[in-house]
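Quick one: co-fold with 3-phosphoglyceric acid.
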Amino acid sequence: MAGQGEIKYKTLDQVDVVGKRVALRVDLNSTIDPQTGKIQLNERFRAHSLTVKELMDRGAKLVVLAHQGRRGDPDFTDLKQHAEILSSLVGKEVKFIPDVVGAEAVNAIKGLSKGEAILLDNVRRLEDEDVEKAPEEHANSTLPRTLAPHLDIFVLDAFSVAHRSHASVVGLAALLPTYAGRVMERELSALNKTVALTNKIVFTLGGNKPVECIKVLQRFLKERPESVQAVLTGGVLGQLFTKVRGYNLGGPTEDFLMKKKYVELLGMISEIDQKIGDRVIAPLDFAYAGKNGSRMEVLREGLPCPGEIQDIGSKTIQHYREIIKGLEPDTSVIVKGPLGVYEKPEFRKGTQAVYMALARSRASTLIGGGDSVTAIEILGLRPSDFTYVSLGGGALISFLSGEPMPGIQVLAKQK
Ligand code: 3PG
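Sure, here it is.
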């Protein structure tokens, strides 16, 4: 069965944290506005702030650990703004410490009083943080080795990094009693229900990460092909299915697929098409930018498309809306990625219409991934319009694909 199976783990209900030094790993990794350099407030902050608040209210001496970006990337920054946002959501100061394992960090941990919290700096400042290693090996990495002697308990709240075997995710778990935080608990329980208990699954798959979509489909086809009722495709995945069905997408789109090496995925797409092609729906039409940049549409039969494809067309939108409208309450829709380039208003129509239909659907709707969650905000929808919004992007895919997740394994191992 896809998913992670039934996992037993300890939660914050099973531990007394009063006066204990608690390390809490959260995921505040966020989009940074390129114009202003400002961190965008998002669901990750809102969700983790509740775990932070609970632990502070319960009298823990709280040490929050998080990352932002990857070393060398433009969004790799310190966590000063993160501490400000967190403090405002918690309603109490979460003090930023511009250090991770040095004397400043250790002294700040030692100086904590009951109910106080600090946020240490970006854990990815440490070069051995994001090396994929087993928990026992990571116990010797800089962060766990240096901080564990000053800590009593580890709480892993960051489901969205649980697919990483990084030092701050698995290393502390090898050294300290470890518990799942509230966000982790909620994600595991909701995802287990959605994935394990549903025999009727519809996928809405788009975005610009087709490999992730392919992984999920392959896994479901291996484990329980009969549960897949329909796959509504958009984004790059929709283009690839159209291509394996013999259509020429047009120079600009074909060049894009070539440049991104997505053409290398055609073999796998073709295999999926042979197995469940009758249930995979490729777009009936596409939208592209005309000469003045305005939205133009072309039917599949009218391909090749003169411009680069940027959205599904009106006929596809209508078709997908009707399918979604007809879904029964016992069906689960797994939504990954937008249907087009939703950041541009003229190519938002596909994502907008399909997400609105999903928001009104009687089926249960599971949506995840950074782009989908941002799209929800941009479209003016709310997380509560869906049955469940996962904060995980890559982690959600690993979960749904049934891949072993190191962060979940360390929770399951606790005695
Ligand atoms: C995410 O944003 O999905 C998580 O924070 C993981 O980030 P990573 O892909 O850089 O490990």
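If it helps, Residues 342 and 349 are 8 Å apart (CA to CA).
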